[in-house]
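Reviewer 2 asked us to include a model.

Predict the structure of this chain.
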Amino acid sequence: MPNENLLSTLEQSLRQARAARNRVAARLAELEIEAETLRAELAEMDTLAGQTEAAIFRLLSSVITTNTAPPVHTPSDDELEAVLRQDAARQSYSARPAMPMPRASVATPRHHIPPLRTDIEIKDDRFADRTIPQATTMLLREAGEPLHVNEIYNRLLEGGFNFTGHNPTISIAVSLNRNGRFRKVAPGTFDLVMRDASQASG
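Predicted model (structure tokens):
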């Protein structure tokens, strides 16, 4: 009967359509599960990227603060000498004879003053856990000659030294001036006492 054949054909078509729909629905469910997994992975990546970005920002902030804060007011040699005179006057004891700088020393001929560099990149962290005298001793031995506090500052930054004060060059000058291992050989310029002794004996 034609009606039975048509009905059979329609029923078969319906079964096929439902089967196809079920396959598509199953595939959609798989894709939704995969999408959720990918969303979770993206969230983890976003979290990790955010943490890394924050760490980079903190590092750059400390470097930028360290590098840019001192040039706001770079003490001249005259100012360094004045600070050292005041510090020597305040010190009632010292590991070596106090070195109050006479005012005549301020009028000594000008020498080259290295600039404080603003483009310093940290090369390593060898000075990260050192004090100013410890790190400067290493620098002066490596240099083989006296260094101005500005150059000492530049090289300490390259070695990962972390300055906390607002006037790092003054901190260096005062710290070295108080320490018996160093002697001031020119305004703002220091050398090792032991090198002088070894050269004198040699």
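The radius of gyration is 36 Å. The first helix runs from residue 2 to 68. We have added this to the supplementary material.
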